[in-house]
Amino acid sequence: MTERQQPPPSGPASSLAVLALADARLPGGGHAHSGGLEEAVHRGTVTGPHELREFLRGRLHGAGRQAAVFAAAAAHAAARGAPRSHWSELDTEYDARVPSPAQRAASRSQGRGTARAGRTAWPSPALRELLSVTDSPHHPLVVGVLVGASSLAGPKDAAAVVAYLALSGPASAAVRLLGLDPFAANAAVAAFETDTERLARAAARTAALPAAELPSTGAPALDLLAQAHRKHHEEEVRLFAS
Known about the structure:
Layout: H1 16-21, H2 37-42, H3 49-80, H4 84-96, H5 101-121, H6 125-133, H7 139-148, H8 155-178, H9 182-190, H10 193-205, H11 220-235
Helix pairs in contact: 3-4, 3-7, 3-8, 3-9, 3-10, 4-6, 5-7, 7-8, 8-9, 8-10
């Protein structure tokens, strides 16, 4: 790997910013999204702990992997003081890798909420640069900026946060949607500890690549669930926005 491709070393995962961003209590709006689980439950695809675990596997290695790649890239860019043009490229490239309009809207909605929290708790030049490009940045980019601006964290930490959120959001939603035992939902998330670590490390290795060369991971089933959920959400009241 060339020097240009080497991301800066990741700091300890105990950074307060990392822990807070992974906390469901952060007022970023993540509690309003099920990551497609509500539609899967509505269709009878997910009915219990076993199906939830398989759903989470797809979430992690599909949408979660894609988010992790861009969160790591954003953390690297924040740490090196990337110019405004780079943030525009990252935003555009992530948009291009998420074909579902519903998923893009959900990502930007959570990005806005997390950016509001970030402006208060972790203001930084990198966050200002990102928000000068768009007032509705994608969620992985915001997480990456907030983590990367910390001297105690780096690309791998940013990737781990969004990968974890790809699991914890739907798992939390399953408690409400299925009346699932919270301990069973947590166990479903914990089962992917090794997968999440490997995914975060892989994302960090690509963090210094140009935006156009960042890996792309497709998740067609999740795209279809997101589109169907948005249509049904317009027709009837649903618990979650996505």
